[in-house]
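Hey, quick one: can you model this chain's 3D structure?
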Amino acid sequence: MNFKTFNNLNDTITQNLYKIPRDIDIVAGIPRSGLFPANLIALYLNKPLADLDGLLEQRLLAVGNRLDNSANFPHNPKILLVDDSIQSGQAIKQAVSKIESSNLHATWLTCVVYATSNTTNLVDIHLDVCQQPRMFQWNWCHHANLSKCCLDIDGVLCADPTHDQNDDGDKYIDFLADATPLNIPTQPIGALVTNRLEKYRKETEAWLTKHHIVYDQLIMLDLPDAATRQKLNAHAKFKADFYSKSNYTLFIESCNSQSLEISKIAGKSIYCVDSNIYYPASQIEQLRNQMKYQGYIYAANLQYRFSLLKNRIIHKVHKYMGAKNKNAA
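Sure thing. Here's the predicted structure for all 329 residues.
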């Protein structure tokens, strides 16, 4: 699974601005996903911005001090029509058709941030290639590829319990019933993999049903209580063991430290919603080596500090013994 974050999107745009002609008069975004990259491109090039409907009505979006708000709509404008990605090309075709049948008397270039190798010929400009299957930070919650994913619950679908709520008792049960929603998927999920205890399955299923969340599997930690879970400290390993043995291709996790550990154990791709970092499977070995190297460095530093401390202690002992012998003499 290929995954792109907002940071990736911004980097792709800034690194490929040279592909966009500077004689563009208006940057127009195709709703909804095309509006964000169109906004970034318009900002970087200092060009007027429009959404598609506004463009057809010859309306520009309001701007700050760098552009003249009172400027008339350009005559026979050259338009950059922007979307985040292209799959079949239908969205671009429909947008172009609307411009062609309008009274704009415009010329245009079509532009997407992410194309596939098979769709680059369907647009005038593509900034990068991102092959299928793929999901983006701004659409994963509503993407059909969720059926190929594992998701954590707390911190992903709902807010984490507070320390006070996390009492493994009545307060925790109240939390499970009324947990604050964060990301509510509108597509079926492959597997929910959570460190919630098996004894809370009924309450967890009730909350998921309440929020119309559809899933194939609900994998919970089968331990007697939270104290045992804390003692074993196997939060990431539990998730990684299931993920590594499954056919799922992406794990969406809330905790960055667990994300690193899951990816290291499972050797598969993971996206952390807290840090907005995607760890692709292709970089897992590099990540493992980096963590191993950092472990070596940490151990070496400890050994060096221990050696310094030992030498200081020996020096002080020798100094003390020398002074004691001198006084005895």
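One thing worth noting: Residues 311 and 317 are 10 Å apart (CA to CA).
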